Amino acid sequence: MARRRCRRTPISMKTRFPELMHIPLNQVEQKAWLEFKKLDDGHPPMLEYLSPELLNEVKRPINLDHPFVHVIADFAVASFNNIIQMYIKKDVHNNLHDYEVMECDYIHVFHRFYRFYMTIEAIEEGILGVYRTEVSCHPIDGCKTMTKFFLTDHIPTGKIAKALPRLISLKYQYKTLKGMRRDLEIKLGATHKSVKGKNEVEVKAELIRLKELHKAMKGVCNVLYWNIRSKIPKTWNETSNTEDWSVSLFPRYLLAERNDNATCKGYNFNNQSRLT
């Protein structure tokens, strides 16, 4: 008697990647979605999806302060981090962090989707980079789907990038003052030892002056230190151990390893054809 072969039910993309596809909006996000729909009201949708070469002509910009820009940016970064943690860096919860949205445009394809195109600057593996990401939303309820997230070779120009020259200057001042402070401490110690010498009054006056100078310099050092820390994200220098990356387990139709010329070693997400 022939043995019956058991047919496997195919696992849907939604089941395999529940945090990437058709994510419903929460109450706050729904309010932002309605504001966006009101903004888009009156703009005719595209009847079909155009080739990438023609898209730039029909994309509509959105003010970066619009609440729905924050919704889709948060979703894009969280989705990218989730899939990287799931397949590449098991112990890294926020692979990409301290992001800033630099640009956001969108298109509306009739009865199919809204698609948002964003340029984001963020820190990954301790390196500030420029990323392009795409998020699709259902035209009725705004459900979100992650479609693309990749590192570009563009030069960062955002808030963190603009703060770097000032940070370098502050670090140099801090390093210089720390050296002067160490020299002053040595001089203070030597002055203490000579208090019992012939010019005791003069030495004590010098000692008081040096102590006041030391106190003032210590205060300046502390101000510089906290000024530097306030401008540098706490996780600026955090990097993961590449030897711990689970590079053999990731789905190759979702993630592609960056080339050797990329500013940061890692992976790009691109599944536009399957997830929309």
Structural summary, described in words:
The chain is built from seven helices and seven strands, in the order H-H-H-E-H-E-E-E-E-H-H-E-E-H. 41% of the residues lie in helices and 20% in strands. The protein folds into two domains: 185 residues, Nuclear Transport Factor 2, Chain: A (Roll), CATH 3.10.450; 72 residues. The protein has a seven-stranded antiparallel beta sheet with strand order 1-2-3-4-5-7-6. Helix 5 runs antiparallel to helix 6. The relative contact order is 0.14. The longest helix is centred in the middle third of the chain and has 35 residues. It is α+β, with helices and mostly antiparallel strands and 276 residues long.
Name of the level-1 CATH class of the largest domain: Alpha Beta
Give the termini distance in whole angstroms: 45 Å
Strand content: 15-25%
Q: Tell me, what's the shape? A: elongated
> What class would the helix/strand composition place it in?
alpha+beta
Q: Give the overall average pLDDT.
A: 79
What is the total domain count?
2
Q: Helical proportion?
A: 40-55%
Instruction: Write out the strand line-up for the largest beta sheet, numbering strands in chain order.
Output: 1-2-3-4-5-7-6
Features:
7 helices, 276 residues, disordered N terminus, Nuclear Transport Factor 2, Chain: A, seven-stranded antiparallel beta sheet, alpha+beta
List the helices and strands and how they pair.
Layout: H1 13-16, H2 27-40, H3 52-55, E1 60-61, H4 67-87, E2 96-109, E3 113-124, E4 127-137, E5 144-151, H5 159-193, H6 200-231, E6 255-257, E7 267-270, H7 272-275
Antiparallel strand pairs: 1-2, 2-3, 3-4, 4-5, 5-7, 6-7
Helix pairs in contact: 5-6
